[in-house]
From TrEMBL:
GO terms of molecular function: aspartic-type endopeptidase activity
Protein name: (rape) hypothetical protein
Record's keyword terms, sorted: Signal
Annotated signal sequence range: 1-21
Domain Peptidase A1: 43-368
Gene3D superfamilies found in the cross-reference section: Acid Proteases
Top-rank taxon, per record: Eukaryota
GO biological process: proteolysis
Record flagged with keyword Magnesium: no
Family to which the UniProt record says this protein belongs: Belongs to the peptidase A1 family.
InterPro entries found in the cross-reference section: Aspartic_peptidase_A1, PEPTIDASE_A1, Peptidase_aspartic_dom_sf, TAXi_C, TAXi_N
Gene symbol of the encoding locus: BnaC09g38470D
Source organism per UniProt: Brassica napus (Rape)
């Protein structure tokens, strides 16, 4: 399936590079190719926006409430317009923003969730050109023009964030409203051939892939984030003495999974005991638990039991251990401090290689990992 997936993503890239005169209005699930920046670990998607479609690189923010970028650089689109402060779009964008627009335009607070900073921006409208699972298309979308100072911490060349959260103004919400489709988000992260789509897993990866997913309920999260609940955690098959349920926020801007300090302490102790054939060595930042070993089999898996012990999200191999060089591998789970946003924030490393189906209409999350079998079909962990 790897070759098919690469061909699929290449086709999406080709669609995104066609001229505006070739773009039709037929839409069936919007698709954006995604790659991982090797220096920052951030996931990058490219959009085409404006009357003469201008490429804009954006960091993918799964919890982001809206799409924003620095409008002061690059081509100035003649089709771009500022949104009125009294419009319905402005009211949707300013949910949670107590400041009322006093000007004719819609000014709002724009957040860089990657580094936790915010600045004032202006809501604007322009034409988005995109590929889809059936044909290319266009849509009028709302986004925020943000100051260059908000780009701090983003990958080189990135001009803003692609917000994929549950807010009414997020990109998936806007596109679903315009295409009259169910609110759905398909996400597949990988170093070079990832995908963000508002279509179903079946449309993007095929029927077999969609039937192989396991599902767990989505909980209500703060600021439109996607949250699931974990009843228990196991290391090497042994259950940790951690009181559940624990909320887990899925994040594409956190490179590694972060645990609340008390939970991390229990997991780190259990993991050190379970990795009996690996030798502990001095930690390498940002990790606290590092080992030397000649084989990956020496590192036990971490299982997150979801709504029941029968439904587990297994983290192992490259999703768990980070090769930092010199024969040293570190546990890719870090201490998130004593007061994080959520007891568990699952980062990009742990999400890579999983196809995620955010079925917002039914408040469910489907997940399945690509296996290394010859067919490389998508299969959830079956325990």
């Amino acid at each position: 399936m790897a070759s098919c997936l690469n061909l699929l993503v290449f086709s999406f890239l080709s669609i995104l590079l066609i001229s505006n005169s070739q773009i039709s209005d037929s839409v069936n699930g919007v698709v954006f190719p995604v790659t991982r920046d090797v220096h920052t670990g951030q996931y990058i998607a490219q959009i085409l926006i404006g009357d003469s479609p201008e490429p804009v690189k954006l960091v993918v923010d799964l919890s982001g409430s809206l799409l924003w970028f620095d409008c002061s650089s690059g081509h100035v689109s003649s089709s771009r317009s500022l949104v009125s402060g009294s419009s319905s779009g402005c009211l949707k964008a300013k949910v949670g923003d107590e400041r009322v627009s006093r000007n004719a335009e819609c000014d709002l607070l724009v957040r860089n969730g990657d580094v936790g900073i915010a600045a004032r921006g202006e809501l604007a409208r322009d034409v988005l050109s995109f590929g889809s699972v059936s044909s290319p298309g266009t849509a009028d979308i709302l986004f925020a023009c943000a100051p260059p100072s908000l780009l701090r911490g983003l990958s080189s060349g990135a001009q803003g964030l692609m917000g994929l959260g549950k807010a009414q103004i997020s990109l998936p919400s806007q596109l679903a409203a315009q295409t009259n489709e169910r609110r759905r988000l398909t996400l597949y992260l990988s170093p070079s051939n990832g995908v963000v789509s508002t279509s179903s897993v079946e449309d993007v990866f095929g029927v077999a892939a969609s039937k192989s997913l396991a599902y767990t309920p989505l909980s209500s999260g703060s600021s439109g984030s996607y949250v699931i609940n974990v009843k228990s955690i196991r290391v090497g098959g042994k259950r940790l003495s951690v009181d559940g349920p624990l909320s887990v926020e899925l994040s594409t801007v956190a490179p590694y999974t972060m645990l609340e300090s008390s939970v991390y302490t229990v997991l780190a102790e259990a993991y050190t005991k379970a990795a009996t054939n690996a030798k502990s060595v001095s930690p390498v930042a940002p990790f606290s638990l590092c080992f030397t070993s000649s084989s990956e089999v020496d590192f036990p898996a971490v299982d997150l039991s979801l709504q029941s012990e029968m439904v587990r999200w297994r983290i192992q191999g490259r999703n768990l251990m980070v090769d930092v060089g010199g024969g040293v591998r570190c546990l890719g789970i870090v201490d998130g401090g004593s007061n994080p946003v959520s007891p568990i924030i699952m980062g990009g490393l742990q999400l890579e290689g999983f196809v995620l189906d955010f079925d917002l209409g039914n408040s469910m999350l489907g997940f399945g990992q690509r296996t290394r079998s010859t067919s490389e079909s998508l299969q959830p962990e079956s325990l």
